[in-house]
């Protein structure tokens, strides 16, 4: 009797262990590299899913107004439809195995200097900056440019374009605004070797 | 009796066999000469080609001063030349009227194309012959044949309404490239001709436009087309005569070589976006493939020359590791690392700038081409970015990369920039571009055309050296290639000399110097008094390469005039850079 009880106990333990292992295996079926993603309104993104079993996965969005998804050639494509947040769960055998937080934001106005600065080596050098208006309806808005420091660069502006001419060593922050959007970058006028003081 | 009958039968049989053999062994006549394009003695730096659509033999007699380079012939289904109510056998017509004088361009359709291919192979082989069709499948058929693939072609789009949106024209560029066609011919009266021409030629293809009237032909040239097609020799000659002043009938394209490098690191996202700021029409960037199949921008196969990391080969490093490197060839203080292809494309497709993507990929080594599947990964990345196609074309020095492009991305125009030996060819002890018969110099016209056709590539190279008469070499060869659909593009200029060179897309290390040069003269309708019109000068709004607006004095060239209105061209000239530019046709109301 005692022996039979031990045998049943062992079988029970083995089955519980194997079940828990199976659950862990399922969790490893797929994962999304990013924990959260910032999406620009109106754009479609390819979300990288590490899996070899894409066809066995399904996806659930916590808010289907904020974003939508589709599978194309084994890629997960997510489209940002409305500003706000949503969660995208990856489902395998009715179990949530991973998820990613989606944050849909306004389309970004890109300034053409992504590092946020221009380095002009020495005086009497020139550079132009033209902002890229990616949002419809901004074409007729006035573009305003301003400098926080005088005497470092001379600037001429016309709409989306600003032309800089370096006058003396130093640093100047340039702010540009279009409608409700504002962005800024820095123009450094350095010594000939290009060091920033 | 029986013997006589048998002998007669044998004799007849023998004669039949001989006849058959003689037919089978009869070789096609071959004419292998290539003609140069006619010089027009206009003021245009990059002179266009004038093409006559022949409906009347007298039009050839009008070409006494030889300005017509090519002649379009309409063929019936039996390949006879149709001229009004008359028909002529093609071979005798060619020999009598065109041989040694004009490039024949034969019009094909799905009914006569098979007969044409057979005729070309077995009856009359003319190397310097072109075809025209409004059916890309017909052109594809000619291109797929082992004998006729060397023929250059024109896609007749005159019955198609051109789209108003610039990038919508990618459909036509890609369709043409897929079948191996380099010339797109539109209707000269189409209101979107200028948009079409600007885009198609920015993608390294050639635009022609067809129209019958004098104004149609002027509009073709003023819209920037590299070929004007008409049915009147007199009109074509008069149209080009309005362009006697020196300059451009369209803004020359300016490509920032590796982005702006005067104040940015080369092949960086900053430099590429600065190129947009400075008004470059194109950027030229180089690609390398990484050990994890990512693709980044860099000219060399190692990190040595433009970052703070020494001795890292791109094919051995993953993106995560590469991101530790800081670009330093202009200034390390930008704190930027290597740009991925995705980052570049996602930013540049928001602009009108066309990317010229040079496929370096470890100089075409076996590791890059085969093991890391660089072209497959290039395609994978471009496929994953919505809207990427149409914003780039590719160039290369290396045959293995060109072969893969033809196989995997046939719709993307690919330019040949020279005959370097790839790493793969070196490892396998092969000569450069071995399969295609080898790299040919630009003056070896016949073999160069054959070579370019073999790989389905366009001509992207040009030279700046001069001959003994002091003429720029590029300016001697440009017309020949242009007439057949190949533009001379790449040379890396250090200044603005390219405005005097026959480069369609001038690659420059000084693109920012062009930012405030005039790129377009406003052609909105204007109101002038008779006296103002007669003065020959007018102040008009202009736009520079980077979009800066300014009012400049332009010359007025009157095309036609009555009491109430006139049609004119405007011409701007800048003495300092010896730079001239024509407007499109401007309508004038006379006060």
Task: Note down, in words, how this protein is organized.
The complex is a heterodimer of chains A (197) and B (591). By secondary structure, chain A is mainly beta. Chain A is 13% helix and 50% strand. Chain A has 2 domains: 31-105, Immunoglobulin-like (Sandwich); 117-190, Immunoglobulin-like (Sandwich), CATH 2.60.40. Chain A has one helix at residues 2-27; strands at residues 30-32, 36-40, 44-47, 49-51, 57-61, 67-72, 75-80, 84-92, 95-105, 117-121, 126-130, 143-147, 153-158, 161-166, 170-178, 181-190. The mean pLDDT of chain A is 84. By secondary structure, chain B is an alpha/beta fold. In chain B, the strands form 5 sheets. In chain B, strands 13, 14, 15, 16, 17, 18, 19, 20 and 21 form a 9-stranded mixed sheet that branches. In chain B, strand 24 (537-544) and strand 25 (549-561) form a beta hairpin. In chain B, helix 5 (136-144) runs parallel beside helix 6, helix 8 packs across helix 9 (233-241) and helix 10 (269-277) packs parallel to helix 12 (341-348). The model of chain B has no long low-confidence stretch (mean pLDDT 93).
